Each structure stands twice: as C-alpha cells, then as structure tokens.
Amino acid sequence: MKKYYLMTFLAGIFYAWGFPVKNFFNFFLFPVIGFSFYYYTVKLKFISLKQLLLLTLMFDFGYFLLGYYWIITLLENFGSIHAPWNYLLGVTSCLILTPHYFIFVIIYKFIVKHLNKSLLPLILSLILVLLENYIPQEFPAHIGHPWLQITPYLGLAPIFGSSIYSFISYLIAISIVEHLTTKIRPSLSYSIIIILLISNFSIKLPVKALKSKKLNIRVVQANIENNLKLQSEKNSFGAAAKVENIYLKLSTDNAEKLDMIIWPETAYHRLLTSKLMYKEKLNTPKVIKDVILKTKAFLLTGGYDQKIESDNFFETIYNSAFYFTPDSLLNSVYHKQVLIPFGETLPLGPFNSFFKNLNSNISFFAKGKTSSFLKIKDATFSMAICYEILYPSFLRQYFKTKKPDFIINITNDSWYGDTSEPFQHLFLARWRALEWQIPIIRSTNTGITALIHSDGSYTQLIPQNSSDYKDFTINY
C-alpha cells in the first residue's frame, strides 16, 4: 500500500507543476500526468473507500508542497500565526485543497460498477467538471487552467471557458488509464478528444479592431511592506505620512494628460465613511485631493469603508474601491463581495459573531452588494478586488446584459511574501480576460502589476517588489 501513497503524493506534485512555480518552469500537461497516476490508484479494486480518501489526502499533500506552500507564509504575515503552528495549520489545509476529489472518490466507489464501460471515461469526466465548478474552493485552480500556456490557440475558451479544457484533460487521463489497464480501446472517448482538439485549434480567437477612443491611465505600485502598512493603518503618524508621500510622488511625477490613476487594494490606510464623502469634498482625504489637484485625473483606490460609525468592527467595514472625480468628489464606491475565508471572515454564517472575539487577526468584513460597474467619460469598467477575479460566476452576474470596456482588478499580494502565489494569482486572472475577450488592468501593491490582453496574454507593467508607476493607453 505504501507504494500507492507515494504514487499519489508524486501525482499531486505533478498536478501543481502545471501552474506557475517561482523560479522554475511549468508545463500545461503535467496536471494530466498527475491526475492519470491518481486515477490509476482510484480504480484499483482492492482499495477501500477509507484508503481512497487517504490516497486523496496524500495527493493534496504533494499538491500543497509545490503549489500551496505559501499558505504557511500567509498565516504568519496576515494571521500572525507563527512557527510551528503556521506549519501545522498549513498542512491541515490539505483537507480543503481539492474537496471535489474527495467527493469524486465517494461517488466513484458507488457508481462505477453500474456504468457502461465504453461511456465510463465520458461520464466520469463530466462528473469531475461539474464537481470542479460547483464544489466551493478557496483558491479555484482547476486541471484545465494550465492550458492558458498555449494562448492564443484556445479557440473554445470564449465559448466554454476553462471547463472545456478541464473536460479534455480528464478525458485524456481517464481514457489512457482505462485503455492501459483493461486493454480495451475507448474509441468513443478518443474520437471526442480528437474532435475537441481539432475544433479548438481551428477556431481562431477574434482579432479586436483597434478602437479610436483612448484613456490614458497610470497604475501605481508603491511596494509598501507589511509592517509599514500595518503601522499606517494603526494611525502611526510617521508611518502614515511615509505611505502617503510614496503614493503622492508616484502619482504626480511627470503626470501629464492622465485620465485615471489607479492605486491597489487597501492602498489608502485610514478608515473612511463614503456616506460623508458623497456630500462634501472636504471629507476627501488630503493626499487624494493633492494628487487630483496636480493631475486633474480620476483616481481609484482601495481602502476601508465604514458602514456605520461604531466601535464594533464586526461586519461594519467593507474592503472597498473608492472612485474620485477630477473635482475630488467621491463618484462611487464598490464593496468587495467575495470575502476570503479565515482572512476577511469565517465561513460559519451566523456563528461568526460568536468566534469574533476568539481571533483578533480575522477582520470580519461586511459583504458588499453594490454593482461592480463604473464609468469614466463614456467608457464602462467593472471592478474586482483580489480573489474576486478568480471566479467566473462573480463576473457573469454583471455581464449577462452588457460587457464593460475593461476590468480593473486591484489586489495586495504582499502577505504571501516571496512565493509562487503572486504568479499563480496573475495566471488565473488572465482566464477572465480570455473568457470575456476584454482587457484587465491589474493593480497591485507589491506586484505583479500587469495589463492583461483580451487573448489571455499579458504585458508586465511593473515587476514584483518594485516601487514604481507605469503610464499606458486603453482603447475602447
């Protein structure tokens, strides 16, 4: 049995190897190889359901070590949970990395004997794709996502999204394993794989005509390290002034004919009350007014919006994006709707209020309900804060009737340190541009700030761990 635990552990490493790994290469078919080895152990007849669940846990452990090891850094930097507890909790997260696979092996154990052998790869692949899409995952990295490496040769992406590539990946893996172990060729499955691949490479991504209207945009990457950021949020005068001066200098340096300036998630450090700023620009923070006065541009910044004036911080503050006009008035505010479990809230619903006093490092933000659509001149754009960009369903709810001209994704990945997470976050965000065929402006605190094009490719504007600004043009 030990060799099968080792096999699934290595399978998890191969699976993670399809996604960006800092300072190392990756290959889009590695997850298919990893899942093939994992599926081989799943279909062994002598293995019990309990052993299947343990094998899945070993798969997740390998997946964690190469792919999600940054959870340990996050727990220390964001949650102030230090060694050895951050390591123990990090390893415990293996239980929730691929919940759809735990459910899959349970379903497999009960239905496999009832399935037609010629249809088995098709049915199992469909089940896996459905589980992948409908079982909640905190960081939804799916087996089909690494296919992004071959963009722009992803003609099926705007039609079916990444799910079609997950289906192809599962179908390839399961069909090959079934063929090798049963000696029966799954001809139907192979035919469908060939048809889908030919269709994918035959359909060309539409070439967007260059539109005549332009917006001149500046993104600011201040590279505020975590200790300085926390001190400024605690109203330490020296720290607050230092942060504000960095943003002021980067925003106003050689600023000519700018339409919009973008600061990243939670860039403005003090608690704001949007209801007051709508009424009078005297309530607009001085540093924001100074930037706007010198540039005459719209300014969008991440920050904290207070729902009500209260000493009780349980779900009374929003992680927000504030959008100011060239006359320093607040035009609109967007409140983040997809909150990160164990960082911005707990996934315990009404029981959250009971646990709020047990861990002071969890913020318990309020969940936003406002529209993500905003306007600049006669262009529209949609907001996504941090991990919201990873969920197709989040954007789909707004794009049903109308697509914006572009998306702005503001984030702060500084909590993850010098790990693979910022590269993985950018990699998965690129899928939204490809699926919707619209560009994404990605503004970050410590990197990687980028302009993602409508075919899923991207231009790195500012590298990781750099304090800088970048001016560019968006056509709409």
Write a structural description.
- By secondary structure, this protein is α/β, with parallel strands linked by helices.
- The chain is built from 17 helices and 13 strands.
- The chain has helices at 2-16, 30-42, 49-68, 70-77, 85-92, 99-111, 120-134, 157-160, 163-182, 187-202, 226-233, 237-252, 274-279, 286-295, 352-355, 392-399, 421-436; strands at residues 214-221, 260-262, 271-272, 298-306, 317-324, 330-335, 373-376, 379-385, 406-411, 440-444, 449-452, 458-462, 468-475.
- Strands 1, 2, 3, 4, 5, 6 and 13 form a seven-stranded mixed β-sheet that branches. It has a six-stranded mixed β-sheet with strand order 7-8-9-10-11-12, covered by helices on one side.
- It is globular, with a radius of gyration of 24 Å.
- The N and C termini lie far apart (59 Å).
Catalogue the unreliable spans: none
How many domains in all? 2
**CATH fold name of the largest domain, please?**
Nitrilase/N-carbamoyl-D-aminoacid amidohydrolase
Number of strands: 13
Tell me the structural class.
Answer: alpha/beta
- Give the helix level as a range of percent: 40-55%
The level 1 CATH classification of the largest domain is Alpha Beta
H-E order: HHHHHHHHHHEHHEEHHEEEHEEHEHEEEE
Question: What is the tally of helical segments?
Answer: 17
Major sheet size, sense and barrel closure:
7 strands, mixed
Q: Separation of termini?
A: 59 Å
Mean pLDDT: 90
Please state the second-level CATH architecture of the largest domain: 4-Layer Sandwich
Strand content: 15-25%
**Annotated CATH homologous superfamily of the largest domain:** Carbon-nitrogen hydrolase
The rounded Rg comes to 24 Å
Principal-axis shape equals globular
